[in-house]
């Protein structure tokens, strides 16, 4: 009898999944308590989330908000309940974990450092951002895609997941943990032997429940609210079928 463990990949969304808040709007609310001007707000609908976030960073910079003030607000973001236990289990089992997030690299890297989780993830796929010399945070697209109707132009998470799987020679089992509508594309690419974990109370769960042809979900669904509800399924992934 073979005792070898299954090769496992666990892919996580970041906002409302690893952390309990939506990190960018959370920080903006803290630093612009009287709201963001309407002409900047309208960028979200006209040009997309990334343009909006970039414009808010520019607005905060123009108002004299420093990077340290942005980081201080960001550090108030909390890990989701049970997430520490789940990530500790992933580490102790030696499982590979990645992040695929439509947030930005400065925010994610800062929070992973704060939570001492930098070593937990083999790769972080997100929109590249950086702090310029003058203290302005700039953000750009992860990629520019025209092949997926379920995803925004700057990020098709399903494509990123598929590429990661291919580049690493495939996995026996893949688990995807997320909450948002942009987590639907990767969920639909999973196989019968894989698991998708939509967070209760968020749009991925509803999107899966309301799925209509031609879209079809093959993976097993494990809903969760507190990440301790994912400990058991995570342990079971290492067993070879
Ligand atoms: Mg999310």
UniProtKB/TrEMBL annotation:
* Single GO MF descriptor: phosphatase activity
| Catalytic residues identified in the record | 13, 15
The protein's matches in Gene3D superfamilies, at most eight in alphabetical order, are given as:
HAD superfamily/HAD-like
Q: Does the keyword Hydrolase apply?
A: yes
Which Pfam families does the annotation name?
Answer: Put_Phosphatase (PF06888)
User: Binding positions for Mg(2+)?
Assistant: 13, 15, 179
Q: SUPFAM superfamilies per the record? A: HAD-like
| Keyword field | Hydrolase, Magnesium, Metal-binding
Q: Which cofactor does it need?
A: Mg(2+)
Q: Which domain of life is it from?
A: Eukaryota
- Identify its protein family: Belongs to the HAD-like hydrolase superfamily. PHOSPHO family.
Family matches, as NCBIfam families? DKMTPPase-SF, HAD-SF-IB
Q: What is this protein called?
A: Uncharacterized protein
């Amino acid at each position: 009898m073979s005792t070898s463990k299954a090769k496992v990949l666990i892919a996580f969304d970041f906002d409302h999944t690893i952390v309990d808040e939506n990190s960018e709007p959370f920080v903006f609310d803290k630093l612009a308590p009287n709201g963001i001007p309407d002409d900047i707000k309208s960028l979200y609908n006209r040009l997309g989330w990334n343009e909006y976030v970039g414009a808010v960073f520019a607005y905060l910079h123009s108002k004299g908000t420093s990077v340290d003030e942005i980081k201080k607000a960001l550090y108030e973001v909390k890990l989701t309940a049970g997430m520490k236990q789940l990530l500790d289990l992933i580490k102790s089992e030696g499982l590979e974990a990645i992040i695929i997030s439509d947030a930005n690299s400065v925010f994610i890297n800062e929070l992973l450092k704060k939570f001492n989780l930098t070593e937990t993830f083999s790769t972080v796929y997100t929109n590249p951002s950086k702090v310029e010399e003058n203290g302005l945070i700039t953000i750009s697209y992860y990629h520019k895609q025209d092949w997926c109707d379920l995803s925004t132009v700057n990020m098709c998470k399903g494509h990123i997941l598929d590429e990661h799987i291919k580049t690493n020679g495939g996995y026996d089992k893949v688990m995807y943990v997320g909450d948002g509508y942009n987590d639907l594309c990767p969920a639909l690419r999973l196989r019968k032997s894989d698991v998708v974990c939509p967070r209760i109370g968020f749009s991925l769960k509803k999107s899966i429940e309301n799925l209509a042809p031609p879209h079809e979900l093959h993976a097993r669904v494990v809903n969760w609210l507190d990440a301790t509800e994912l400990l058991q399924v995570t342990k079971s992934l290492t067993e070879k079928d």
